[in-house]
Each structure stands twice: as C-alpha cells, then as structure tokens.
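Quick one - first record:
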Amino acid sequence: MMKTSRQWHFYGWYLFWIMWVALGTCLGLWQWERADDKRLSMAIREAAPALVQPTMQPAQGAQITLRGEYLAEHTLYLDNRIVDGSVGVAALTPLRDSYGQLWLVQRGFLATGPHREPPQAATPSGTIELTGEWQDVQAGGPLYGDNREGVRLQQLSLEPWRASLGVFSYSGWVHASEGDGVLTPWWQPNVMPPSRHMGYAFQWWGLALAALVVMLVGGQRLRRDETQEQSLGNKNKEG
C-alpha cells in the first residue's frame, strides 16, 4: 500500500496530466468543427447568386447590383484601415434604392494619413449604380469607449444611423467593388481555409497524446519508486 503522502502525489500527477489531455482533445475537436463550419461557409459563398435590385434579404456572399441615390450627408467612416501601407478610413454611405429600400454601402478605402481631421469622400449625386458583395451583420470585437467619435466608427455597425434614418431594410451591408462613388476596394472575406483549422486540430491532438505518454510513463515511475521504497523498508525491518 502507498503511504498517504505518496497517494496524493500519485493522484495529483494523474489529475494534472488528465486535465492537459482533456484540454488538448477538446481544443482539437473544436478546431475540427471549425474546419467543417468553414467548408460550409465557403460552399454557401460560392453558391451565392448574383442579384439585381433585390427585394428580399440577400444570401451571405451574394453579388448584388443596386440602383438608387446615396444619402451623402449621412456618410460615416470606418476608422483605422490600412491599404498598401497607407492609413485611412472606409467610407460608409447609406443608399436609398429605386424601391425605397435603405442599404448601407461600404464604398472603399480613403487615405487620410495620420491626422485626425474629419475625412471627406466625394459622393456622386443623382441616380447611381454599384455592385458589391453582401455581408450579413457580423459580431464586432471588444470596444474601448463609444463606437462613434465624430464621423468615425471603430466598428462596422448599423446602429449609428438608427436615430437619423431608422432601420435599414436588411441586416447587413454591401461591400462595393465597382460602380459610381466606389473608392479603393480593400475588404476581403475573413475565411481561414479549412486545412488551417485541421492543422491546428492535429497539433492539439498531438499535444494531448504527448501529455498522455508523459502521464503514463511518469505514473509508472512513481509506482516503481514506491515499490522500491517499500521493498527497501521491508528489508531494513527484517535486518
């Protein structure tokens, strides 16, 4: 029988490494599920249709063409964008289409340099046409203070226009790539390839396997040391 102190040492060893094995296994499974999710997202995006003047919620990734008028006086700017080493903003202008629907259009990058003066993007008047990719509303990251500072926004959101324009027709925005009033395109869908997530999954499972080996080998050594100590103690008693 092990001594009480030895038992706690033995059980503590196994408990510590079991936690690491479980953590690595769970994180590997999570990354594997993320790979499946990314495959689904890519398939949905690739299958998204091209729509002209849609009157229903577009599918994620749909290429849509809109005709209408920019509401230039309601333009805001997504802050801290960088394109080809230049610091600037992305122009965000609401658009009222020919059916009266209200859309938010991300028109592209405008270089401003490091200064903090209010940016101003030239906006065409009258009826315009543009094409871009639809993106459903995305959850933003952590905010430090208010989202809006003057005409600048930390995060892309529909909320800053609610008080002045009401609710947009659909929950999302158009990342314009060509057409009237479109600036330098910068946005790319943030879709990590499934293979990357699978690689992470195998890394976590490899760490879990390594932790399992260390746990078993170390546990055997602890048991062997205890057995040797008991044998030595018995011999001393007999002597």
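second record:
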Amino acid sequence: MTATRDAFEARLRQIGAERYHDRHPFHHMLHGGQCTPDQVRAWVINRYYYQSRIPMKDAAFLSRVEDADLRRIWRSRIEDHDGTAENEGGIRRWLRLAQAVGLDPDYVASAQGVLPATRFAVDAYVAFVREKPLLEAVAASLTELFAPKIHAERIEGLLANYAFADDSSLAYFRNRLKEAPKDVAFGLKWVLDHADTTEKQDAAAAALTFKTDVLWSQLDALFSAYVTPARIPPGAWQPGEGLLAKGAA
C-alpha cells in the first residue's frame, strides 16, 4: 500500500537520521579539533572532488529534463557552485578554504591527490544521476535535508579548534546555510509529488540511501588512508605535497 505523503516524508527523514555522514567518526574528529593539519588537508582535497562534480552532476540531470520550469529552477544549483558575475560560487570558496589550510589551490583543483575510493564514489553518483529516472536523481539530492545541521556544527567546531578558521575560509559553509534550504524545499516537494506509487516511493528511498552511502564511503576512505594506522594508496595525496610556498597563504 502506498504510504501517505507525511509517512513517506518521515521515511526519507529517517534514512538521514540513521545514515547521514554526520555520524561518521571522521567528522567527530574534525569538528572536535582532533584532526592533524594533514588530516584536515586530506579532507579538503578529497571533498573538493565531490564539490567540483556537483555542477557536472546537475548539468547531466538538466540535459535529460524536458520540463522548462524544472530546468529553470534546477539550474540555480549550477550557478551556486560555479558562480556568476555577482556570486563567486561554492567551488571558489572551497579553494579559499584550501589556501587557508596551506594547500596550493591549483594543486587541489587538479584533483591529482584524490583517493581512488573518493573518485570511484563521486563518479558513481554522477553516473547515477545521469542514468537513473528523474525521480531517483532528485531523491538522491535530498541529503541536503540533513546538511544545515552538519554545516552549523562544522562552523562552530572549526572556529573553536583550528587557527585557519575565519569568516573567509568558512564562507562555503555559511553560504550553504542560505542556499541549501531553497534547493531542498523544492526537491522534497518534487519527490513527494511524483512518488505516487509504492514502487516509486521505494525507488526514491533507495536513491537517498545510495547517496548517503556515497558520502559515508568518502569518509571511510579518508579514515582508512590518513587516520592511524595510515594506509595511503598509490597515487593519493602524500603529506607535504601540494603545499603553498611559505608566506603565500
């Protein structure tokens, strides 16, 4: 039997409560000031790969959308990350964070040091959105339902525990607190409107679960590679690589 709208929304929110990556040990370390400078840098490098692929994911989504109204609303997500004449965009803000933690932004943008598991997970998400039905593609984006809490905790934790943290370096997270709510309000309504059978509700829930797995697996990879005992795979960032010249930050 198809769940009511309220029951289905509660099901989606429960997925986040149980599976969102704010529960991961690496985030507890990061927000609690327990990460070394190199562990913070590894996080910044690998998370950049995810950030840089979000507008590519959204462009792939838009290429399949025939509804002009949906395209018009969705394309603001690309502008939020890539920027406009008036808005520098999330990718540039993330590179400012990279510079603040002592990394060369050009090195980070090259994606040279990204962990293989990070690359695999993020590329799988882009492929998922490119290939799956639109309902599942939109449902996968609903991890934004749970993002404001983690951004607020991150701002508070980084400011309290790390010398690099200030209004400039944390601008990405502050802006997402403003940008994400409008995206998720639209996305949630769209999914609730279109998941009108049991089969579609199950598919949407599975898509959201998949996305939480994408986010969780990135932190698993970081923890395995850079938290004791560190096991950095071939080709991934090695501490000391890609740093700014002294005095350049």
